[in-house]
Amino acid sequence: MAEGTGEHGGGGMPDPMHQFEIKRLIELEVFGLDASFTNSSMFMIIAAACVMFLTIFGMRGRALVPTRMQSVAEISYEFVANMVRDNVGSGGQRYFPFIFSLFMFILFCNMLGMLPYSFTVTSHIIITFAMAAVVFIGVTVIGFIKHGIGFLKFFVPSGVPAPLLVILVPIEVISYFTRPVSLSVRLFANMMAGHTMLKVFAAFVVGMGVIGGWAPLIFMVAFTGLEILIAFLQAYVFAILTCIYLNDALHMHH
Amino acid sequence: MPQLAFEDWAPQLMWLAISFIALYVVMARVALPRIATVIEERRDRIASDLDEAEQLRQSTEEAIAAYEQALAEARSRAHAIAQETRDALSREVEAEKMDVEKQIAKKTEEAEKAIADAKSAAVANLNEVASGAAETIVKELIGGKLTKAEVNKAVSKALAS
Asked: Which of B1, B14, B32 sits opposite A35 (nearest CB)?
């Protein structure tokens, strides 16, 4: 729901995709690479800063009986810790900081995107794909370190007659390699679709005026609630799938 | 679609790396260990408090058990004392009663003996008076003389019939 003063596309309607545009705030070039500080960079920094603020400033009291903010920090810690314990099991504690950072980063990027005039970092495929690729490559490397070449057995389902393996092994390999795609597209598409929808309906509210605009406005209020739920849910889904992939790599349960 | 503007990918990736690595380092080095210690301390504290509460509860139960035992002992002792006293009293009463009964029996015996003596004495007197009277009556009536033995015999015979 970013950018109230949208650029006008054809037909006088605000362009719903305008909110996803990257604006270079500071032009920068490092080693010949474009490293400009953009609106996306700003919201990534804000999200990371919010997580740090919550977990460090919120815990400053280290109280036995927590304050509200400390409670939130502890609840998020326990939430992710339980997720890791339940889904990764033994050996998962080492990766807990990564999964916690991943979950909180995505959650805050999604939630910050719900503020008017803000920018949704996770609505860009390159961001979600980069995170999914890090998870995918990391998990694969962990699998090979843990099991050596035996990790390839992961693609061979046990207890299946040999002729069927000819079909099943390629399917397993394909499903393994589509993991980063599905992981990244799921988050990106949810974020983009939700925000586009909100923008389209916001345009309806304006377009239909004082008399007819109420219906899309009511829909928007309800849909904003749903979007907040989705913002949390998608962060959760991303984190839990990361846990499940890690569990596959560590324990090779199939 | 702004998402497919390739010239924007490099700066996004760059800043994603910067912000996420910074976040990860801060979380892993500072924030998460701190939260873990706080939660751990709270858990320990609660566990030790529960332990203490459990100990206190146990000692309370011990105290209650000791109190109840003491109470039961005191009650049984009181019961024993009461029983003893009752026994002693009844024994005493029994002895007293026996004594009194013996005395009564003795007195009764004495009295009976006195009555018997008095009766036999009276009977003896009666014999004498009767025979004296009989002798006199016989003398007056028939003027004859009777031996004392004959009179006594007749009197005894008359008294016996």
From this structure: B14
Predicted confidence (pLDDT) at residue A152 exceeds the cutoff of 60: yes
Phi, psi (degrees; rounded to nearest 5) at A26: -130, 120
- DSSP readout, B86-120? HHHHHHHHHHHHHHHHHHHHHHHHHHHHHHHHHHH
- Nearest by CB to residue B45, choosing from A64, A78, A97, is A64
Q: Give the residue from A53, A98, A100, A104 with the most B CB atoms within 10 Å of its CB, the best one to mutate.
A: A100
Residues 6+ apart with CB under 8 A from A109: A43, A44, A47, A120, A121, A122
E-strand stretches of chain B: none
**B59 class by beta-carbon count within 10 Å (0-12 exposed, 13-18 middle, 19+ buried):** exposed
Q: What are the structure tokens assigned to A217, written together?
A: 């406005």
Nearest by CB: B11 against A36, A55, A62 = A36
Question: What is the distance in angstroms between the Cα of B47 and the nearest Cα belonging to chain A?
Answer: 13
Round to whole Å and give the CA distance between A213 and A204: 7
Q: Does the beta-carbon distance from B32 to A44 stay under 8 Å? A: no
Question: Under an 8 A CB cutoff, do B20 and A44 touch?
Answer: yes
Chain A interface, mutation test: which of B29, B30, B38, most A Cβ atoms within 10 Å? Answer: B38
Q: Could you give the C-alpha distances from A181 to A133, A135, A177, B25, in angstroms and in order? A: 8, 11, 8, 27
Quick: pLDDT tens for B112-141.
999 999 998 888 888 788 888 877 887 778
d(CA B90, CA A188): 104
Q: For an interface test with A, which of B23, B30, B38 has the most A Cβ atoms less than 10 Å from its Cβ?
A: B23
Nearby residues of A40 by Cβ (< 8 Å), 6 or more positions away: A22, A119, A121, A124, A127, B8, B11, B12, B15
Mean pLDDT of chain A: 86
Query: What digits encode the pLDDT tens for the residues A186-226?
Result: 999 999 999 888 888 888 888 888 888 888 889 889 999 99
The ipTM value here is 0.86
pLDDT of residue A162: 81
Residue A105 has pLDDT above 80, yes or no: yes
Whether the per-residue pLDDT at A55 is higher than 50: the answer is yes
